[in-house]
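Worked example

This section walks through a single chain of length 290. The input is the sequence exactly as stored; nothing has been trimmed or padded.
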Amino acid sequence: MIVHSIIRLGLMSLFLCLSSWTLHAESQRFAAIDWSHTETLLGLGVTPVGATDVATYNAWVKEPKIPAETVDIGLRTQPNLERLAEIKPDHIFVSPAYQYHQTRLEKIAPVTAISIYADGKANWQALEDFTQTMASAIGKEEVAKQLIQTSKDTFQQLKKSLSSKPKTNLLMIQFMDTRHVRIFGQNSMFQIALNQLGIKNAWDGKTNSWGFSLIGIDQLLGMKGQFVVVDPLPAGTREHLEHDQLWQYLIKESGHPVLNIEPVWSFGGIPSTVRFAKLITSAIQEQEAN
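Given that input, the structure is written out below as tokens.
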């Protein structure tokens, strides 16, 4: 009897410890400076207590949307440290691009600096590694495995849903103003998505560590491919382009209509990559149906 009582007490103590640990893990408060961290936290089922540029995130990243209860902690380039301290995060995620904040941020909470694109070797495995590293830091390893597998399954389904490959390679661009675009190639989120779908990118030129090159639209002359324009456009740009002779000539010369894509974060993780894959697949299917 004494032995059984000791065993019961031991099991009860273990249960209470595990319950306490689970409660502690679930009650952890996380803040993110970079949008790729924000969207990944949301993709792992965690609502950050603080995130930067919330309104702009919801315009540029779009999904997953930041919930109303998340506190806006200022700009990505200059977070509001007073506001961040007030919400008392247990952990802060930051991109190496903003690592100059790290010393000050560490006075508020432990900091993890991690990026997908910084080393110039962005691919699907880099997205997986990024997701798993974040998941390990917040105790969501199993959720990360599910997110990764679900994403892979989604890519396979989207790839199969394309009755045929696009008739031409794609040129992925994002307007910075009426005369300049980012054109995306190797090391970009867009390239990762196209690779997963088995679609070719027409741009094989040089790109920076973020996977794009900034060029004038005049440099698009003679390029063979269908333009994919990713929103949002700067204010007034859409109206200008409707009457811009050079842009209209470029479209005519390409021999294909422009594929317009809703906002998606160009430098995102798995959530943005899957979102773009869905959007480009839908745009191609709609074009084929017309």
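What to look for: The first helix runs from residue 2 to 26.
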